[in-house]
Every structure is written in structure tokens, then in C-alpha cells.
Amino acid sequence: MLKPYLLFQGPSWANGISWPDVVVIFIYFLFIVYLGIKYSKSKDEKSYFLAGKGMSWSVIGLSLFAASISSSTLIGQAGDAYSTGIAVFNYNLISVLVMIFFAWFILPFYLKSNIFTIPEFLEKRFNVASRYYFSAVTIVVNIFLDAAGSLYAAAMVMKLVFPETSVLTLSIIFAIVVAIYTIPGGLSAAIRVDLMQGVFLLVGSIVLTIYATNSGGADYVKQLLSEGDVLMKLVRPLDDSSVPWLGMIVGIPILGMFFWGNNQQLVQRVLTAKSIDEGRKGVLLVGFLTVLTLFLIIIPGIMAIKLFPSLPKPDMVYPTLIMELMPNILIGFMIAAMVAALTSSLSGLLNSVATLFTMDFYSKIKPESTSKQKVRVGKIASITVLAIAVIWAPQIGKQFGTLLKYYQEMLSIMAPPIVAAFILGIFWKRTNAVGAFSGLIAGILLGIANIIFTVNYGRSIFGDIHFLLTVPYYFAWSILVMVVVSLLTKKPPLEKTENLTFSLDEFKRETINLKQQAFYKSYRFWSYLLIAFCMIVLVFYW
After folding, report:
1. What is the mean pLDDT of residues 178-191?
2. 311's torsion region: left (phi>0), alpha (psi -120 to 50) or beta?
3. How far is CA 122 from the centre of its chain?
4. CB atoms < 10 A from the CB of 499, how many?
5. CB atoms < 10 A from the CB of 26, how many?
6. With left for phi above 0 and alpha for psi between -120 and 50, is residue 326 left, alpha or beta?
7. Which residues contact residue 495 at a Cβ distance below 8 angstroms, ignoring those fewer than 6 apart?
8. Distance CA 335, CA 269 (A)
9. Cβ atoms < 10 Å from Cβ of 532
10. At what angle do helices 128-141 and 118-125 cross, to 10 degrees?
């Protein structure tokens, strides 16, 4: 019997947890609310939206990790591992390499341009139309994919404890809790809470992995490895339904660049760095932590195949491991740890959308507005986002298969044109505003056309292929339109390219300067170490 002996009697309205578990969960909620209120000292837009730009690499890294462990990561990836094996880890593994690219080549332009939002960079490099487009897309993604997904995932966790409570009711409760500590204090409060929750999540995940290992999960994983079972293979055949090997090369890097390089929710935390070097090292720290998700999220999902072979929904894998393997009190701790991850992601989303709406739309409409007015508008925007996300969250479980599938397939359409605009904008000076905007519109129109075609004919325009293999089509089409239109129209003025595009000479000068300092202080040394770490994992699970 997997379930440990119940040490304490639980309340009648809860399922399988003791009163001490209830107390632990309650104390956790009180604690994060306390932290959020304690650090709610934002007086102007810089402190509210960017936490005063004074964060160190360690705070940035842990905050990024906590915010990145969203519903799609914690719930979705464990569920996907249960269904198809460790191939889902490729999204994390390839994204770590993308993080390194982002830290080296893109992050400096963000910080040097003193932007509040990622779309703001597009205005500096191109024009306001590109900014508005990206802001609008990002807000939609944040509301319907990220915020609603986080609420849905948190509700699914708590339904194991309160099975009679509806997803809508639980979503409302979580929305209120996050609102209490996030909306008053802005990004500074969110980051402080994230820091605590990042540690909380790491400890909780390690404890759960130990319990799963000792319950027979380790023997099952060893058996799969010795037999060379496909469940433990990262590199899969081209016709694989989970992650075909070609998708690793042409699809995941583009989605990873959007998630880590163009995602307001995450990059906003990097924008709080007190220097470029601190920002870079914070990104690399989250890279190392992300590799660990293989052992803390993915492999426990594999172990669950043996321990719980007949679960009705893959998304319930991680919560089931908690409820069935862990003793009382620790159940409360782990539920709190999971909720920590999900609420942390949601708190970042709220501040992200508030920043986008306030700085990209409201400030443009009312340029004379004061800092106090901008902060107030940001708070109203956060409340609105929560309300919409609460309404949409229950629809995810009704209309889509798994949370991860819902997230990935929607993102595969929205991300490529945006990534194309940033890549060309930074690495090709000839890209102009007309070309960039044309490529953005052309890319999303192709996505809409593909959705309509799929609904009517049951397959993609590109054929019956994995959605990862459709990503490069959207990307290449957007690139093509941007290049052709840019070449047919005027060159961009100097102020649109100076200090906003990559310079090989500047890169060489930085290389020379880095040689003057101790190797362990260089972000490039830690980048090489992280690459080696990734390669070892890839070779071992090839």
C-alpha cells in the first residue's frame, strides 16, 4: 500500500489530509500575503513595474525560476512524462541553450535601452505599430494561456483536497490571494515572494522525488534504462507523437526564444537587474535550475507510470504523487509548494500585463499622466486580468486535452512572427519598420488561415505533421516577408539601429575585457559549464 499511515484525523470537508496539513497550507497563504504587504512600498512607475532596477543575479535567478515553473511546467510536463516519457524535457533542455544565447546577445540591448516592456524595444527599433501589435498579442497570451492556465492548474491541485469544490470557486480563491500581495506592491513585492517560493518549491520537489524513489519508482526507472525503453529517450524518431528529433532542432528553439527572450512576464525580472552582468548571471542561474527539472518534475512523472498506472487524466500525476505517497503534514507542505509555483507564475503575469497596458497603451494615450496615475491604472489592469482569467480557467479542462498541449499549440502560432522580428531587428540593420510590421501581420494571418483550414479539413495546411514542425514554417514565412519588404522600402534611419543592433567589434572588445578578470567571474565561463551540463544529460538519455 502506497499511502502512508494517517497520523492525524482530518476535517470532514477535506479529502485525505489532516488538520496539521490544513494548518500548514493556511500558514503558507498568510505568510506570502504578509511578505507581499511588507514589500509593498512602490511609489512610482519605476519601483512598481521594475522594482527600482536594483536586483542582484541570485534574486533574479530564483525569481525567474519560480515564475517559469508555471502550470505548463509543473502540472503539464509531469503529465506529459506520464503519457510519453522524458522527451518533454527537450523543451527545457533546448531552452537552456536558448537562455545562453539570450544572455550573450539580446539581454544587453534590453538593459541598455532602458525599456519598461519588451514591446517598447520594438518601438525603439522599428515603430509604434509593431509595439502595439506585440503588446496586444502578449496581453492575450498572458490572460488566456498563462493566467487562466495557472488558475486552472492550481484549482486541479486543490480539487484533490476539496473534490466537491468547483474549478471556478477554487480559481476565485486563488485569484483573491494573489491579488492581495501582488497588486498593491507591484514587481518588487512579487519578486520578494518569488524568492521565497523558489526555495520552497525546490525543497518540496526534492522531498517528493525521494518519496517516489523509495516507493519503487527508482527500480522502475532503472529497469527502463537497462531495457533501453523509449520512455527514457530524449531523441525520438521523426514520426514520434511527443517530440520528434527534428522538432528539437527547428521548433523548440523558436518557442524557447519567445518564452525566455520575448516574454514580458519573465524578461521583466531581468530588467530589474542593477547591471548587465548581474542580469546575465541571473539568467544562467535559472538555466542550471531548469536542468534539474528533469529529476524533480519529469522523472517523478515516469515513476508514476509504475506507481499509479490507471490515472484518468495525465494532468493529475503530480498532485496524485503528493496525496498518495507523502505522510500527513508533508502533504500540506507539498500542496503549499505546488501552489507556490503556480501563484508565483500568476503574480508575475499580473505585473506583466499591468506594465504592458499602462506603459504601452495608457501612457501613449495620456502622456501627461503622473506616476501615481500610472500605478493606479496598472492596479486596475491587474484586477481586470484576474477577472477574465477566472472566467476562462474552467474552459481549459472542458475544451482541451492536456494543459501542456493547450499551451504549446497556441504558442506555436503566436510566437514565430515575434521571434522573427526580434532576431532580424537585432542582427540585420537593414530591417525597417514597414518590413517588421508586415512580417508580424503576415505571420499571424498564416496562423489564422491554418486554424480555419484545420477546423474544416481535419489537418494542417502543412500536412499531417507534429505542431513543432509547423513552427519553422511560420518563422520562415515571417522572415521572408520582413526581408523582402525591407529591401523594397527605405533603409531605417541611424537612430533606429545605433546601439540597438549587434556589433561584432563591440563583441570583440567585450571578449578582450573579460580576459582581464578572473575566469570564475565571467558569465561566459558559467555559460560553457552550463552547455557541458546540458550535453552530458543529452548524451546519457540519448
Report:
1. 65
2. beta
3. 21
4. 12
5. 12
6. beta
7. none
8. 26
9. 10
10. 160
| pLDDT greater than 60 at residue 274 | yes
For residue 312, give the C-alpha cell.
484518468
Cell of 531: 552547455
φ, ψ at 55 (rounded to 5°): -85, 145
Q: How many helices (H) and strands (E) does the chain have?
A: 28, 0
> Domains in the chain and their CATH numbers?
22-398 (1.20.1730.10)
- Cβ 382 vs Cβ 351: under 8 Å: yes
Cα radius of gyration rounded to whole Å, the chain: 23
Phi, psi of 463 (to 5 degrees): 105, -175
* Residue 127, helix vs strand vs coil: coil
Q: Give me the count of residues in the chain.
A: 542
Residue 381 scores a pLDDT above 70: yes
Please, where are the H alpha helices in 117-263? 118-125, 128-141, 148-159, 167-182, 186-212, 218-227, 245-250, 252-261
Comparing 505 with 314, the larger pLDDT belongs to 505
**431 to each of 76, 219, 241, 481, 540, how far by Cα in Å?**
37, 55, 37, 11, 42
**Half-sphere exposure of residue 483, counting CA atoms within 13 Å on the CB side?**
11
DSSP letter string, 139-177:
HHHIIIIIIHHHHHHHHHHHHTTSTTS-HHHHHHHHHHH
> Does 5 score more than 50 pLDDT?
no
pLDDT in tens, 71-94: 556 777 888 889 889 998 998 999
